[in-house]
Amino acid sequence: MGTRKIPHTVFDSRFVDEPDGFDAWRQSISPVFDVTPWRAAQPGVFRARTEAYHLGDILIGATTTGPQRFRNARTPDRVDHILVQAHQTGGYVGRLGEEDKRVTPGDVSIIDLARPLETYSFGAGIISVLLPRDAFAHRPEFLNGAHGVPLDPARSNFLTDYLSALVRRLPSLTQGEAPEISRITRDMILACAMPDLDAQARVEPQLDAVMRDRIKRHIDRSLGSPELGVETICKTMGVSRSRLYRLLESEGGVARCIQRRRLLRVRACLEDPAEQRSIGELAQAYGFPNQAHFTRRFRAAFEVSPSEVRQRAAEGAPVVAAAEEPPLTQWIRQLTLGNPR
C-alpha cells in the first residue's frame, strides 16, 4: 500500500457532449458548491478541467473553469470543509459571509464551506486544497476567522509557490508519503494564513526551501545586472541579510552562489553553437569585466577553459565536467538554466 501512487482522478468537460458539459461539471462538484452558468458566458459553451489527488484526509487539485456563479452546496452530502484556493489566473467577486470580496490572479482565498457564500467567477485557473475542519481543531481561532481571510501578497506568493511545486510532484509520490504531505500542507496554510509560530517552526525547512528556490530564480533572471548583490536581493525578495546568508549558506554564501550561477550561464552560452558573442563579451555580460580573472574562475569551477568548452561544443564532443559537478547536476543545469537569451 505504501508504495502505491497517490490516487487521482480527472474531470474534463471536453469529453462530455457539448450541451451536457456544464451539467456534468455541476454534478461533479455538487458536494462543494452549487454552480449555475453566469449570464456573461457564451451560451452553450463551457469548459472545465480538474485533476485531483486524494491524500487520505485532504484533496489537492488543479482546476481551470469558465465563468459561473457559486453558492453553498445544496445536496444532502454537502461538505463543511475548509477550502484553500490559490488563483493563478482569473478570480471572482461576491460575498463571503457578510463581507464583499474581490479575488484576482495571485490571491489566495480561504473559504469556510459551512458559512454563506455567493460569488461570480469570470473564469479561473486554481490550485485547490480541501481540508476537514478537524485538521484545524487545535486552532479554533483559525476556524473562527478563516472565511474570506485576506493573505498579504508575500504570504500568498509563498503559499502559491508551495502548492504549485506540490502539484507537480504529486504524480510521483506514494500513498505512504501522503500523511506527512497532508500535515505539512496544513501547517503551511496555517503559517501563511495567520501568525502561528508553532506551525511556522514545524514547516521552517519547507518555507526555507521555497524561498531558496525563489531567490535562485531571481538570481538567474538578473545574472546580467551589475546591481545584483545582497542589497538588491534582500529588497526584491523581502528577506533580511541574515536570513539571505543563512538560506544560501549551503551554496557557499551569496557571492559564491551568484558567481557560480553566472559561470554556469556563460558555460551554457559557450555550449550553444548559435551563440555568436566572444568569450570576452560573454564574460563582460555576466559580471566578469576582467577576462583573465574570469578564465581563472571558470577553469577552477569546471576544470576546463572557456575556449575548450566552445571548441568541443562546436565539434560535438562531450565536455568533461568538473569533479564537483556530478552528471545529474549537469542535466539539471541544462534544464534549469536553459538558453540564456
How would you describe what is shown here?
This protein is α+β, with helices and mostly antiparallel strands. The protein has 2 domains: 8-202, Jelly Rolls (Sandwich), CATH 2.60.120.10; 227-337, Homeodomain-like (Arc Repressor Mutant, subunit A, Orthogonal Bundle), CATH 1.10.10.60. It contains 13 helices and 8 strands. It has helices at residues 21-28, 140-145, 153-169, 178-193, 197-202, 204-221, 230-237, 241-247, 254-270, 279-285, 291-302, 306-315, 327-337; strands at residues 8-12, 33-37, 48-54, 59-72, 82-96, 99-103, 108-112, 117-131. Strands 1, 2, 3, 4, 5, 6, 7 and 8 form an 8-stranded antiparallel β-sheet that branches. Helix 3 runs antiparallel to helix 4. The longest helix is centred in the middle third of the chain and has 18 residues, at 204-221. The protein starts with 7 loop residues before the first strand and ends with a helix. Mean pLDDT is 84; it is low at 320-341.
Question: Main traits of this protein?
Answer:
Arc Repressor Mutant, subunit A, 2 domains, elongated, alpha+beta, 341 residues, 21% strand, 13 helices, Jelly Rolls, disordered C terminus
Question: Strands, helices and their partners?
Answer:
Blueprint (H helix, E strand, L loop, with lengths): L7 E5 L8 H8 L4 E5 L10 E7 L4 E14 L9 E15 L2 E5 L4 E5 L4 E15 L8 H6 L7 H17 L8 H16 L3 H6 L1 H18 L8 H8 L3 H7 L6 H17 L8 H7 L5 H12 L3 H10 L11 H11 L4
Antiparallel strand pairs: 1-3, 2-4, 3-4, 4-8, 5-6, 5-7, 5-8
